[in-house]
């Protein structure tokens, strides 16, 4: 009889690597529920990005600091897969691994958390908390008077600091608030006001390749893939790759699927928010990566090249 993922899962539960924050565990639980009744277990890991909270990500290695510890567990066999917020993933992932599935996307918008319903309603000189260079630049573009202060840590930590009065409002992802079902006051911000990061709201399952157990389990994860979300994030991440985007780059990339066509819009800003460049393109969904790459190259032409991002 041919060995398949059912045989491998019955020999040993499928192990999913996860960060240990409440949100990361909630996201991993989403994957576990979708894998049921296949037996699963969680390998909780602390990453450098979770441990160093007093500095911007750019100073401690970029957004990949949330991913690399999980990739090591994947490659050394402690985990069969790793569950990530896809916006935390760099465009180049570890050799010997692949994206095994992208789950259906949650709300991709940003949220203004606090008592104010719009960015314009914030008082003059209001103190806003965020760790995102994209959000910071967009806020400065909209409201140069705002004071943007670094806010890192898990969602509960950020909310506690808002409650303690350190900030007038903070910006978080709607997806995280929904996945944790947190009873907080927030207003989703429209894409025209606060365009989202590439792959925001999407969960990715990263798997190992070229290994007997990994290859046998690959179809188990593949059945969870959402084709529409996968196409959209492929286009968005292609924008990111073309611009050489990272946590250092104030960049938004958003894609939507309309029948067999994918529509991609993106913008890049200067860090101070004073300059903003926008580009868009559309075409067959089968060429999502090419279309995203085209949009990224348009942005580079508009802003004058990568020296703009230095």
Q: Would you kindly provide a written description of the structure presented here, covering whatever features stand out?
A:
The chain is α/β, with parallel strands linked by helices. The chain has 3 domains: 5-105 and 202-225, 3-Layer(aba) Sandwich (D-Maltodextrin-Binding Protein, domain 2); 110-188, 3-Layer(aba) Sandwich (D-Maltodextrin-Binding Protein, domain 2), CATH 3.40.190; 233-309, 2-Layer Sandwich (Double Stranded RNA Binding Domain). It is built from 10 helices and 13 strands. It has helices at residues 5-11, 22-35, 48-51, 68-75, 133-142, 155-163, 174-180, 212-222, 227-243, 288-303; strands at 14-19, 40-45, 81-85, 97-102, 110-113, 127-130, 147-150, 169-173, 186-188, 203-208, 251-258, 261-269, 276-284. The strands form 3 sheets. Strands 2-1-3-10-4 form a 5-stranded mixed β-sheet, sandwiched between helices. A 5-stranded mixed β-sheet has the order 7-6-8-5-9, sandwiched between helices. A 3-stranded antiparallel β-sheet has the order 11-12-13. α5 (133-142) links the parallel β6 and β7 (147-150).
Count of individual beta strands:
13
Q: Helix/strand-derived class? A: alpha/beta
How far is the first residue's CA from the last residue's CA?
57 Å
User: Which strands sit side by side, in order, in the main sheet?
Assistant: 2-1-3-10-4
Write down the CATH class of the largest domain.
Answer: Alpha Beta
Which sequence of SSEs, written as H and E, runs from N to C?
A: HEHEHHEEEEHEHEHEEHHEEEH
- What is the CATH homologous superfamily assignment of the largest domain? Periplasmic binding protein-like II
């Amino acid at each position: 009889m041919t060995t398949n993922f059912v045989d491998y899962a019955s020999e040993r539960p499928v192990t999913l690597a996860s960060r240990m924050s409440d949100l990361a565990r909630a996201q991993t639980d989403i994957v576990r529920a979708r894998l049921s009744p296949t037996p699963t277990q969680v390998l909780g890991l602390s990453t450098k990005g979770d441990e160093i909270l007093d500095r911007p990500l750019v100073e401690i290695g970029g957004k990949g600091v949330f991913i690399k510890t999980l990739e090591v567990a994947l490659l050394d066999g402690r985990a069969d897969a790793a569950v990530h917020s896809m916006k935390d993933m760099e465009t180049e992932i570890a050799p010997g691994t692949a994206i095994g599935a992208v789950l259906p996307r949650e709300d991709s918008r940003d949220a203004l958390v606090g008592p104010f319903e719009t960015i314009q309603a914030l008082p003059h000189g209001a103190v806003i908390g965020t760790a995102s260079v994209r959000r910071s630049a967009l806020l400065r573009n909209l409201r140069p008077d705002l004071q943007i202060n670094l806010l890192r840590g898990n969602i509960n930590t950020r909310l506690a600091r808002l409650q303690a009065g350190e900030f007038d409002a903070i910006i978080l992802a709607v997806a995280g608030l929904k996945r944790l079902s947190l009873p907080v006051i927030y207003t989703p911000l429209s894409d025209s006001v606060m365009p989202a990061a590439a792959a925001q709201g999407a969960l990715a399952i990263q798997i190992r390749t070229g290994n007997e157990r990994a290859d046998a389990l690959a179809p188990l994860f593949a059945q969870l893939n959402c084709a529409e979300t996968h196409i959209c994030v492929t286009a968005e991440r292609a924008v990111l790759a073309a611009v050489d985007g990272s946590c250092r780059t104030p960049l938004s990339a958003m894609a939507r699927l309309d029948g067999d066509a994918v529509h991609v819009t993106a913008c890049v800003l200067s860090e101070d928010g004073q300059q903003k460049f926008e580009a868009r393109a559309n075409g067959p969904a089968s060429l999502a990566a090419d279309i995203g790459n085209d949009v990224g190259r348009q942005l580079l032409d508009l802003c004058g090249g990568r020296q703009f991002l230095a």
